[in-house]
Amino acid sequence: MHPTPHHEVDHTAEPSDDPLAIRLEQLILGAERRYTAFQAARTAGVSMDLASRFWRAMGFADIGQAKALTEADVLALRRLAGLVEAGLLSEPMAVQVARSTGQTTARLAEWQIDSFLEGLTEPPEPGMTRTEVTYPLVELLLPELEEFLVYVWRRQLAAATGRVVQAADDEEMVDRRLAVGFADLVGFTRLTRRMEEEQLGELVEAFETTAADLVAAHGGRLIKTLGDEVLYAADDAGTAGEIALRLIETMEDDEAMPALRVGIAFGTVTTRMGDVFGTTVNLASRLTSIAPKDAVLVDGAFAEEIVRNGDAPKAEADEDPAALAKYRFQLQPMWQRPVRGLGVVEPWLLSRREV
After folding, report:
1. Fewer beta carbons within 10 angstroms: which end of the chain, N or C?
2. Would you give the DSSP letter of residue 65?
């Protein structure tokens, strides 16, 4: 927790002399500032080096000699250090816990302030300021949102734990075979030049909300959103394919939405801190970039997997036409083509079988 460079934002610097700002911080943190970084580390029984690494991992700027920390900060340091001392977590793992929690909650907090609280704190009466409305609103919302956050985290933790314990072996817990899909809005860059910022924000929010709901409803997991693109994963290829087609069908029904294209690949994926990495992910991204609009392009491993699972026929010409009705999907081979960084691939066009 060294002095803050001029280019960094110090989120823990003393607030302005505005009494409301000070009261709001105390309300949210549940305590007054009373410790410097050194004092907090010493009180928690943690080395200054480890305390600094925890603090930075959570996403906060160095605070120098300012009295900016509270009893809650001391308790958090003591808890993390205690997990390391007890041998429950290694020191690098404890830092990862701090980093993953900090990154996730930072985004949540920014969203709540920028969108949620900003809309709710519009002055209800002429002459009132937003700041006069904010304190009582935060006072009412804080305990309810805190309870809800813990509930959702426990639910997500239970779901993630269930997936891990079903893994075949220890290696599969980290390097797993998954279907990974990217869904991308076509022509988004052109849209950014034509639309007002507020309209663009509403379009992105509608896209992300629709995608998140569809992915969750059909058994996939939303990995991340990138404005005009979402990344999702599923344990089996059929689920990933169903999500992709439903995304396109839903977007086609919305005249305000641009066309969508989806690329899916199936294979070994490395998972870290809620994200996914590896050649399979890269291939899914490349397939998305060459997919036709309102279409789903998949790799050969994905095609083989849905054939193996009985979701698509191996060769339609060899099937009795009446028997084709039992399949969910149909596959159309596309021309082989070079894909940057991955060599030559043979993509397949995935579509829903017409009943």
Report:
1. C
2. T
Q: Which amino acid is at 273?
A: M
Strand partners, 178: 267
> pLDDT 10s digit of each residue in the chain, 355 long?
544 443 344 444 444 456 777 788 888 888 888 999 999 999 999 999 999 989 988 888 888 888 889 999 999 999 999 999 999 999 988 988 888 888 888 888 887 877 766 666 666 667 767 667 778 888 888 899 999 999 998 998 888 787 667 655 555 555 688 999 999 998 887 777 777 777 888 888 888 889 999 999 998 999 988 878 999 999 999 999 999 999 999 988 888 788 999 999 999 998 877 788 999 999 999 999 999 999 999 999 999 999 999 888 876 655 666 667 788 899 999 988 887 778 888 899 999 987 5
* Half-sphere exposure (Cβ direction) of 152: Cα atoms closer than 13 Å: 9
Tell me whether residue 16 is exposed, middle or buried, using C-beta atoms within 10 angstroms of its C-beta: 0 to 12, 13 to 18, 19 or more: exposed
118 to 115, 212, 238, 291: CA distances (angstroms)? 5, 23, 41, 39
Is-contact 290 296, C-beta < 8 A? no
Angle (deg, nearest 10), helices 48-57 and 91-111: 40
**Unique residue bearing structure tokens 């072996």:** 169
